């Protein structure tokens, strides 16, 4: 069994076996509240979208959505979920993906950073900054935990700060109220603004 979560076959296997303890089956409440109070739209990237419930939600709210996942089985799940909006999802590796019109206005995070082995977190921080325009937003749900085993690989507040503060400032931070059991009590809604 593939054990390295940096490889697509790790995730293919889990989607194919329908072992998806991270899959919420719905849009997180903090995202819905953010979209309701935040008037700006624009191009948003959803990396590691999985089944991609948020893709339809963001598109219907007026965002121009590009969702990517490197797992073929995840893509199949997303396309099944999204139906006529399936064209918004494409197979790509976050670290190698060439956006056609980068930079993005926003990047949405949910269970993507915690899916990545800790050794690639530095690369994730740099890549996320590079994909966003100055003033662009990284918004979403972050998993805070100190269990060495994963995925999910939890992060510490100071560690996330160290990854992001060179390029971002934290502008929203609150507990998530509707986390699924796998993340309950350890998930926070955060918005980080890309510095100019
Ligand atoms: C824990 S799942 C979360 C899926 C989705 N964000 C959600 O909240 O349900 C992590 C997803 O990230 C994808 N993934 C992991 N590394 C990736 C990479 N380097 N590029 C693109 N997708 C990746 C996996 O295939 C998997 O679908």
- Work out the number of β strands: 7
CATH class bucket: Alpha Beta
Give the termini distance in whole angstroms. Answer: 44 Å
Q: Could you give a short account of the major beta sheet?
A: 7 strands, mixed
CATH 4th-level superfamily: Vaccinia Virus protein VP39
Mean pLDDT across the residues is 96
Per DSSP, the total helix count is 6
Would you identify the CATH architecture? 3-Layer(aba) Sandwich
Radius of gyration: 15 Å
CATH topology: Rossmann fold
Strand percentage? 25-35%
Structure commentary:
The protein is of the alpha/beta class. It has a single domain (29-194), classed as Vaccinia Virus protein VP39 (Rossmann fold). The chain is 29% helix and 26% strand. The protein contains six helices and seven strands; from the N terminus they run ααβαβαββαβαββ. The protein has helices at residues 8-16, 29-37, 53-60, 72-82, 121-131, 157-164; strands spanning 42-47, 63-69, 89-91, 104-110, 132-143, 168-175, 187-194. The chain has a seven-stranded mixed beta sheet with strand order 3-2-1-4-5-7-6. Strand 1 (42-47), helix 3 (53-60) and strand 2 form a beta-alpha-beta unit. Helix 1 packs across helix 4. The protein is globular. The N and C termini lie far apart (44 Å). The model has no long low-confidence stretch (mean pLDDT 96).
